[in-house]
Amino acid sequence: MRKVGKLLAVATLLLMGAGCSAAAKGRAPVADFLVSTVDSSYWVTSDGKTLRMRGAPMYLAEVDGRFREIYVADDDHSFYDAVFLGQRLFSRDLIRGDSIELFADTLAPRMAHDFARAHPDVDPLKPDDEIAPDPRIHVVAELEVYGAQGPFISYEYRTGIDIASVHGRDGVDSHHARRGVLDLRTGKPATLAALFGANAATDALAAATAEWTAARDSLVARTDERSRNAQMAIGAFQFDSTSFSLEAAEREPRVVFAVPGETRGESGAYFALTPRALPSTSWWAADREQLPVGPDSVRRWTHGALELVARSYDKFDHAQLVLRDARQHEWVIGVVTAPVQRVRWLDASVDAETRKALRKAFNEAALYGDDSRVASVPLAPQPCCAYYFIK
Fold first, then answer.
1. Alpha-carbon torsion 49, 55, 58, 60, what sign?
2. Radius of gyration of the CA atoms of the chain, in A
3. What separation, in Å, do the N-terminal and C-terminal C-alpha atoms of the chain show?
4. Where are the domains of the chain?
5. In the chain, which residue ranges form alpha helices assigned H by DSSP?
6. Element (H, E) at 159
7. Residue 145 and residue 7: Cα distance in Å, rounded?
8. CA geometry: angle at 141 spanning 166 and 69, to 5°?
């Protein structure tokens, strides 16, 4: 089953009032654009009579003018009493339909292979077989997409090994987490120097290393009893120049280094350092207009005389989309998962073949699960409120 991080979190678009203002009267401006969040894509269209928003649990990226769906697939190698579950990251060209593998976990299949060699009389599970109520071995690897910036995508990779103690043998409780950036064109890891140049990479790495060293030394220097356990834990973390992700602030690039290490518990952990500004590059500038301006609470995009506003609420888990014309009249579109990462206006540069591929992708995504939604907003004058219908 395809999935990108968490599936569409908005299970229902809410019945909402738009107020008794000009926002609920007259014709909405003609508009056509895609909205991308970390786990979903939304297609908004307006022909001046009806404003429609269609949502699907998929993540779309655009590389060299072509749209690609980025998705994660499970890679199950489990036995009855031993779970070995990895994941693989793919990119699918919407027009050609072909997929390329960007990243694959190797921990789960490798340990499954070792388990099979040690237990030749135990058969792997078939698709419909059930696992033991409390398997003795859990080896799980998870991938989560953070978002695309130009032809590059940031991801998080978590692994966990939990093996129960048996017959006097000690158990295993080992969890790791790290971040990374991949080139969507090749599937190869991207270094900071390749992304932003050697000088910018050297400066960012030096500042991040200094921050990590200062934080680690400060903790080690403390003598209170509460810090002793933290001092033991921090020794398992080592700075890694390739463990980072990209993000945007006011349309400018930033890098976030994540210091990986080994932890115990249900999930791996890392130390995320302070986001650091980087100089813009040609590949970044090509997508600048798709990125938002403004704080996380109110993100904005402009396109000619139109403005799209994403107003976050519910502890920044959801955002209300509002379309605004040159006279500041507003039309409330609906509710999406937050944060909204980018908006791609579908103007004349998008050809008929691409539009057809997008329609097909949204139709197929509706079959991924029960989370896909279509919302329609009637734009005829209303006595007070605009209502939202689920189709």
1. positive
2. 24
3. 23
4. 22-58+288-390, 66-285
5. 107-118, 192-196, 198-221, 225-234, 282-285, 352-365
6. strand 152-163
7. 12
8. 160
Q: Token digits for 48?
A: 């001046």
Q: CA-CA distance, 182 to 9, in Å (whole number)?
A: 26
Per-residue pLDDT of the chain (391 residues; tens, 9 = 90+): 344 433 333 333 333 333 333 344 578 899 999 999 988 999 999 998 889 999 999 999 999 999 999 999 999 999 999 999 999 999 999 999 999 999 999 999 999 999 999 999 999 999 889 999 999 999 999 999 999 999 999 999 999 999 998 766 778 999 999 999 999 999 999 999 999 999 999 999 999 999 999 988 887 776 555 555 555 567 788 999 999 999 999 999 999 999 998 888 766 688 899 999 999 999 999 999 999 999 999 999 999 999 999 999 988 899 999 999 999 999 999 999 999 999 999 998 899 999 999 999 999 998 875 444 455 444 433 322 222 222 2
Sheet with 330-337, side-by-side order of all strands: 298-303, 306-313, 318-324, 330-337
Which amino acid is located at 351 in the chain?
Answer: D
Structure token pair of residue 61: 């990226």
